[in-house]
Amino acid sequence: MQIFDVLVIGSGGAGMRAALEAGSRGGLSVGVMTKMFPTRSATGMAQGGINGVLGNADPNDTLAKHIFDTVKGSDFLGDQDAIAFFCEQAAAAVKEIDYFGVPFSRDGEGRIAQRNFGGQSSPRTCFSADRTGHVILHTMYEQCLKHGVKVLADHQLLELALDGGQLAGVVALDIRTGRIVPVKAKAVVIATGGAGRMYWSRTTNPFTSTADGMAACFRAGIPLKDPEMVQFHPTGLAGTGILMSEASRGEGGYLVNNKGERFMARYAPEKMELATRDLVSQAIETEIREGRGFGEGLNAYVLLDLRHLGRDKILERLPGIRDLAITFEQVDPIDAPIPIRPSCHYSMGGVDVTDFRTCATALPGVFAAGEASCVSIHGANRLGGNSLADVMVFGKVAGAGASDYAQNREFGGDGTLAAQAAAWEARFAAATARSGGPSVASLRDRLATTMWNKVGIFRRGAEMEEAREAIAGLAAEYEGCAVGDGSRVFNTAFVNYVELGNLLTVAKAVVLGALSRTESRGCHLREDYPARDDANFLNHTLVTLKGSEYELSYRPVVVTDYQPAERRY
Fold first, then answer.
1. Band of pLDDT at residue 415, cut at 50, 70 and 90
2. Quick check: bond before 376 cis, omega within 30?
3. CATH 3.90.700.10 boundaries in the chain
4. Beta bridge partners of 190
5. Which sequence positions are flagged as catalytic?
6. What would the pLDDT profile of 493-544 be if each residue is shown by its tens digit?
7. What is the CATH number of domain 233-342?
8. Prediction pTM value
């Protein structure tokens, strides 16, 4: 049995930063468990940049501006004490990873370059061309290796193991061998990323973003906070949903409809294309709905025009964007505009973090960071550039919190770990032996269609009721679905089966939270309740599993310096 003082689940930016913090303290055994090779994690897909008040591009930028931009961007659903803490740490986090070796782009004086991003009052997004997440991820991996962190690659999280309400460790699938393995741990950091694949074909997320950590924590009794707050990125490629970074608009790209208009003038006349992601996504979908897009139905789109930036700037600042556009849309943005449409991008909600200074959850020994968590700093809309800052700031915080906890606790729970591993062995045998029933892929596709059509950018109560019924039906079918592969070694069919179960678990919470929030706020746009309702919904949604039932409750948003006001851009 593998044994760790601190076990980090997930090898993205938050997970590896947590492992680095724990590993650099010395005296603790630290492991990273990941269902892939570490440098393949979702952080590597983050293109545009990382926010921090350095003042390189705008010497008048201030910490107060960053805090207010984040509060306003969240549509006042973010906790202002947590946001202040986050913004205070962000600049130091940028400088720290610069020291670790992240190859940031530089300005003419050799300082870290900064660009404009949506919803921000100053250009404070630090970047490495349009591959910022990629270089951060590789740098974190190098640092983890340097500090002796052990990596358990190709391990799928199955369950948190609890012994009398206390953490004993986790149960996982060793994908290489097919063995169900118990892993003993004093403290666990959940950093497994988001749930974007519940929208499957219209998401910028990798195929691995299947809510694994969220679902495991939820089954262990930890609430999901604000699960209905799902961000849609304005500029996904029309055919695939693949991300066209906000850097493309930060560098000056235009959004154009079929009349040749820069239509953002109708929706955000001051910020134009650099309004917040929720507003730009809603504007694009409105243009399509009202007949000013190109194409029809799910194939409709508008255009992202970069041609006026010139060849040299595109090649220097947006080379990745150009490669993706050529590869997947057969369009070279130097010569022609790119067809785009909003795509599911980010889970603002997630595992309920109860203490932002440690990233602790309600279950002692379990910590959460990154997109899997909800601190909450992003509220109802995340600003571009704040996610990479989030994973660096709160990854470090979670690693420190887990280390401090592990130093004062003994191991335990061998019997529980063995029992839960045996239960999963039985489940593996039963699921892989079934020859009839619907396929995992068919259920997954029906879930994606339901979520996109009924719980997407625009929402209505009646349609979401239909979604709730549909998901309940899919969950029932899931119990008898066919895996289709009974082998042990690299049984990715069983991995897909587990992932679908996690997506169904979290999708139900998304729908419940969205149905119950009878207002519009940020990314949550209820056409039947178009106004924001601070009197009743300046609250976080909490969805908790009690037995087999989902229970809904609310927690007030922390308001300190900034009273809620109408958002204008």
1. confident
2. yes
3. 233-342
4. 9, 368
5. 277
6. 999 999 999 999 999 999 999 999 999 999 999 999 999 999 999 999 999 9
7. 3.90.700.10
8. 0.95
